[in-house]
Design goal:
9 strands; alpha/beta; Double Stranded RNA Binding Domain; 167 residues; 3 helices
């Protein structure tokens, strides 16, 4: 075989197998649909609509990263999530000897239950606790939306990988 035909064969193989299979995604052929209800929120200090933002981003991630279709009626798999904490702590570093933390840490904790309606043995529950740091001289309200985007991106990636790469 010539180098060109080997390259052509490789390219065709990549196209036919689907890109998501090379990300380590492992979804049984019997699973075709998913449903994600908006997450519950059990903390008073979380920003408005955080539970919707996380659910929407997870829906987008699954639609774009897999072959699964979203449905509310008789889904093959479901995700149920609860936000259990949200807040700011100091990140432990002290600056200038004035006992003020140089960095603050925005933390989010949520519990996600994955329900496999086809094979209950695959159902599972896991707690996620992403965080991100920011300079303590900044006002949280000025940077909160950007930090939330970072946290949501991180946690939805973790949930997707844990669910569809066989955690």
């Amino acid at each position: 075989m010539t180098r060109l035909s080997i390259l052509s064969t490789l390219m065709i193989t990549l196209l036919l197998t689907g890109c998501y299979s090379f990300k380590g995604v492992s979804i049984p052929q019997s699973v075709n649909t998913f449903y994600i209800e908006n997450f519950a929120i059990n903390v008073a200090n979380a920003p408005a609509a955080l539970e919707v933002t996380i659910a929407e981003e997870l829906r987008r991630k699954i639609r774009e990263g897999s072959r699964l279709q979203s449905t509310e009626i008789d889904p093959d798999v479901e995700f149920i999530g609860t936000i259990t904490s949200y807040g700011v702590d100091n990140a432990g570093a002290v600056s200038n000897g004035n006992d003020q933390a140089a960095l603050n840490k925005l933390k989010l904790t949520l519990v996600v239950e994955y329900i496999d309606n086809i094979d209950d043995d695959n159902s599972k529950k896991k707690t996620y606790a992403p965080f991100t740091t920011f300079d303590s001289s900044l006002d949280l309200q000025d940077v909160e939306l950007d930090l939330i985007e970072i946290l949501v991106d991180e946690v939805t990636e973790q949930i997707f990988n844990d669910t569809f790469t066989d955690w």
